[in-house]
Specification:
This protein is mostly helical. It has one domain. The protein is about 50% helix and about 5% strand. The N and C termini lie far apart (about 100 Å). The mean pLDDT is about 90.
Length: about 260
Amino acid sequence: MSRQEPGAKVRVIIAHEGLRDFMSLPPRPKSFLDASRRDWQFEVFTWLLRNTGGYTKFRDTALVLPTEEFFPDRGMKGHAGVAALFRRVREHAGMADWPCSVEPAREAAPATPEPDSIPVFRYQREGIEPISLVAQFARELARYLAASFDEPAPGGDSRHESAIEIASVFLGFGMFAANTAARTRDFQLSEGELAHALALFCLLRGLPADAADEHLNPHLRKHVRLASLDLEQHEMRFHKLRTLAAAPAGISERAPPARAG
């Protein structure tokens, strides 16, 4: 019988210890979205940061919630109440100085606006629901903002509307968008995709993943938590976003677009 080489037993023990350490590691969180949709959301945030003043400006963006802090105009009804709500959404989006107005929808289709006319955002008088109305206004303001960019949205025309929905989350209105998508079919993106965008916003902004939990639908809280666990594995992507400055030709500080005199 051959004699065992000195150290052979030690090598076996080391291999066994390494296997035990490996087996004790916590499992990696499952991907919340597939890689293509997750990567596209990162690309949209990159596009938005480049064209709105970079990460330095983004750090001033608030996570808007349905509280008196953000919407102090209580007790107002009818069009006056909607106009006050719209004014607050514009302020929180950083677009208070952008020329636009809000009016109730008309039965007849409105005439085609002139190229340099002030945008008019319309709403349905019947069944006004504040959360959905804020989500609608935020999306239309995001559309107005994106129209000022020289750079097209990632994904081309087929994904432009979805990029606008991500832009409304970028402006701080992710809770409103996700809750609305969970109850209606007003958004192209699913509630899960919007919850993922909200988690991305919170992590990039340095906010806890549960920052909006009190106001989210219960199942959306789980979506945001799982999306956050997945996104935390992509710190290098966040590092790149945090180093972004405004594009040379971008619209910095969300300045109102120039109009013909």
